Amino acid sequence: MSYTFDWSVLWSGQPAWWLLQGLLTTLRLSALGWLLAVGLGVLAGALRTVAFMPLRAAAVFYVEFFRNVPLLVWMFFWYFGVPPLLPAAVQDWLFNHAAEFWAAVAALGVYHGARMSEVIRSGIQSIPRTQFEASLAMGLTTFQAYRLVILPVALRLIVPPGTNESLNLLKNSSVALTISVAELTFQTRQIETYTARAIEALTAGTLIYLALCLSIATIMARVERRYAIPGLIARVEAG
Amino acid sequence: MDVSVVVDNLPFLIVQGFIGVGPFIGGTLRLAVPAIVLGFLLGILIGLARLARAPWVRLPATVYVELFRGVPLVMVIFWIWFIVPQLLQRPIPEYGVALTAFVIFEAAYFGEIVRAGVQSVPRGQVEAATALGLTSTKTMTYVVLPQALRNMVPSLVTQMIVLFKDTSLASIIGYVDLTKAAQIVNNREIKPFELYLFIAIVYWLCTYSMSRVARRLEHRRATA
Known about the structure:
The structure holds 2 protein chains of 2 kinds.
Chain A: H1 14-47, H2 53-67, H3 71-81, H4 88-96, H5 99-125, H6 129-137, H7 142-172, H8 184-195, H9 198-226
Chain B: H1 4-8, H2 10-19, H3 28-50, H4 55-69, H5 73-88, H6 94-119, H7 123-131, H8 136-166, H9 178-189, H10 192-223
Helix pairs in contact in B: 2-9, 3-4, 3-6, 4-6, 5-6, 6-8, 7-8, 8-10, 9-10
């Protein structure tokens, strides 16, 4: 192979700036998507436990439909399919305020919300019903039982699969390049297009993703150890 | 809602896009099925390598798994797309690029499942097999792997569903799968809502039936 490396393309002129902007967009997209995903995940998880049938059915439909269809299809759906159905004023606003970014946030949040709700549900379900009954017998109210008994354990059980799922969300934000959100992978492609330096550009992008994922995983592993419940080694598997 | 756009283009979407028979190189099934089989086979090797006692076998496998699990699939597809033609000094068809990327990427995930499955087999089983005079290869093939495979079934099917959905990303490099077929039709008809909803339902029918089969297998395992 007669390829001469030229790593200087990465920090001379535009490319370094592009990479930084891409990284910031990836982080912003993932953070907003994550908030939406956790919100929807908690909501769907909670609705699956209520007694009122239609609400329960709606939550099951949401989880089963949205997590079983590729994220890429949702990207196209939210970017190309949904805006034409909105009122003209909303459309105008969206297309003046980076519609592709908000479509990507919606796609990521709604898709991962369905997956997140399964993580949350399995965390809560892994706590024996008797714990709840025992708390009531001790004289706690339902709210107190959740706040003092169920949630402290459930949240800790959710940390490992929740971290895993959040990292999936971060990595999946790269799919937003298909609707031309200028995130990290998009910028990597752009550097390749402008400099014809594929290996250097891809190496830079790959290393940034790796650094992000490994550092988040390391921090969360420390959190997990710090708050581990002594004697409890049961882990919740993501559904 | 205009269903006729889906009905009119149904042969193109299903025969070309989903199955892969037609003028373009494509097909979701034609990519997903070999990718699942080859990815699983490579995953078995990687999973076993991670459990090996020799560090020169274990360490490369660990690096492989950690590397590919920390990088988006889109990135891996671009790597194969740009680098392999440069290495081989000749162009590679999209099908080859997509299949290689999926097999390499998913093998890391399958490898973790295999490792967890093998570790789930009680240690006493290996000791008993050794006490009976079986070599370590025979212990693996006749005692550990059959039990491990049974324990792996639920997570394996989950991973297959993930891989099946991931094949939609092959459309990024121009492989005409179901997603790309819908894009092509949409460019002509401009009916994005109907078309993307339709392919979402097609994908859903496949993945949901896979998860139903998984649940049944799991149930049978529990009662056995």
